């Protein structure tokens, strides 16, 4: 089963506090925030026992330094993860799909945004 964004949000919040972590939509306020979006998963692995799924993570800050530091804190937390429970989901691993976070853009309010994609592997729901 793919990891529910709510479980990942709860797990990530301590790593970036006091910056809020939200799902799906980057609102105009607050200036600094972390946004998670689910992506398409790949085919099940190991004879269908595990299911990979992508999560796209955008980190915004009022300065390049804040946005980058937030993105790197998320990155460090995820790539050091080793078989852990996130809410009701067991996560076998989380890997960067394309390297460390990279600068994406400055929005119309001149806030910096960094982006990264991670591959989460969870046991396949059987039943």
Largest sheet: 6 strands, mixed
Report, as a whole number of angstroms, the end-to-end distance.
Answer: 11 Å
Q: Which regions are unreliable across 5 or more consecutive residues at pLDDT < 50?
A: none
- Could you report the average pLDDT, rounded to the nearest whole number? 89
Specify Rg, calculated over alpha carbons. 15 Å
Bin the strand percentage.
35-45%
Look at the helices and sheets and give the structural class: alpha+beta
H and E string: HEEEHEEEEE
**How many domains make up the coordinates?**
1
* Helical coverage, percent range: 10-25%
CATH architecture: 2-Layer Sandwich
Q: Given the structure, what is the number of helices? A: 2
| Multimerization state | single chain
Named CATH topology: STM4215-like
Number of strands: 8
Q: What would you call the shape?
A: elongated
* Assigned CATH class: Alpha Beta
Explain the layout of strands and helices.
Layout (H helix, E strand, L loop, with lengths): L4 H12 L4 E3 L9 E9 L8 E12 L2 H16 L4 E3 L2 E3 L1 E4 L5 E5 L5 E12 L4
Parallel strand pairs: 1-2
Antiparallel strand pairs: 2-3, 3-8, 4-5, 6-8, 7-8
